[in-house]
Design a protein that fits this description.
This protein is an alpha/beta fold and about 180 residues long. It is about 40% helix and about 25% strand. Strands 1, 2, 3, 4, 5, 6 and 7 form a seven-stranded mixed β-sheet that branches. A two-stranded antiparallel ribbon has the order 8-9.
Length: about 180
């Protein structure tokens, strides 16, 4: 059984982005993938900012990345870029921390003007970490995400496309040697 790690880089505990990460992990679990969700905001701040991999929580988070076959990166869009919190975490990974991994980049944001954050900001970092395969990224508009009753639902405008990228990610994991 393949292991997938969803890494969400939102600093907010009520983040729609984090809820998207939960949704993707649940969908992958339906296919019997072992899917876990790492919320970077829950890591201890000082060791994270100091890239102190001797800290037990940081070491465990880096270990989760190392043990994963697939990585889903979920980030809110801030000032036309992915979150600084996600960047801090990615920076503490080993130089080729995504070697032999399939990666699915996801972003949320308020405007389609920021959709290029995935291909022009996040994808080069993922590639520099040595990802074996980066599947088609996906940008979810905030207005297509409804957080009613503590549960996230994706409006029909984005549901089919999100399902498609999850399926593409799943097929890439199956094809991985």
């Amino acid at each position: 059984m393949s292991k997938v790690l969803v890494i969400s880089g939102s600093p907010s505990p009520t983040s729609k982005t984090e809820m998207v990460g939960d949704l993707v992990a649940e969908r992958l679990a339906e296919y019997e993938w072992n899917a876990a969700h790492l919320r970077v905001r829950t890591l201890p701040a000082v060791p994270l900012l100091n890239a102190d991999c001797s800290d037990p929580a940081i070491a465990e988070a880096v270990g989760q990345v190392a043990r994963a076959d697939g990585i889903v990166l979920a980030t809110p869009t801030y000032k036309a870029s992915y979150s600084g919190l996600l960047k801090v975490f990615l920076d503490l990974l080993p130089q080729f921390g995504f070697t032999r991994k399939v990666v699915l980049p996801l972003a949320t944001g308020g405007s389609t003007a920021h959709v290029l954050v995935l291909d022009y900001a996040l994808r080069p970092v993922v590639q520099s970490l040595g990802a074996r395969h980066v599947v088609q990224s996906f940008f979810l508009l905030d207005k297509h995400l409804d957080r009613s009753g503590g549960r996230l639902s994706v409006l029909p405008e984005s549901t089919e496309m999100l399902d498609g990228v999850i399926e593409q990610f799943r097929k890439a994991l199956i094809a991985a040697p």
